[in-house]
Write a structure and sequence with these properties.
The chain is an alpha+beta fold. Helix content is about 35%, strand content about 30%.
Length: about 120
């Protein structure tokens, strides 16, 4: 077996072990922070609250944070762009009576630290 085939088999074995540690998290607001070394995306929710006087307001509560290298952030940016463009195209096809593909596709961002999808 060549060295290239062995590395390919190792990558395939790693891909099979990807699993979510928890249920999904819904976020309706995000904040982005940058350093020269990485990018952090904070995910949160805007929630209504009332103070002691009963006055209502909206508060942003950030519960999750993800750190990405600049390379991984670029891959995420490109994957989100492709996904949003495909979704917009599908919506246009529905509005004009055309037929698009079934369902909405997903895309994995990153590849074991390598750029790509």
């Amino acid at each position: 077996m060549s060295d290239g085939q062995e590395k390919q088999e190792q990558r395939q074995a790693l891909q099979k072990r990807v699993a979510l540690k928890e249920d999904g998290y819904y976020s309706n607001c995000t904040m982005v922070e940058m350093t020269p070394f990485d990018i952090a995306i904070l995910f949160g929710k805007v929630r209504p609250v009332r103070d002691a006087n009963g006055q209502g307001s909206l508060v942003e509560m950030y519960d999750r944070q993800v750190y990405l290298s600049h390379l991984q952030a670029r891959a995420l940016y490109e994957a989100l762009g492709r996904s949003l463009n495909a979704l917009s195209e599908r919506a246009r096809q529905i509005q004009t009576g055309g037929t698009g593909g079934e369902g909405v596709g997903g895309e994995r961002v990153g590849n074991g630290g390598q750029h790509g999808s």
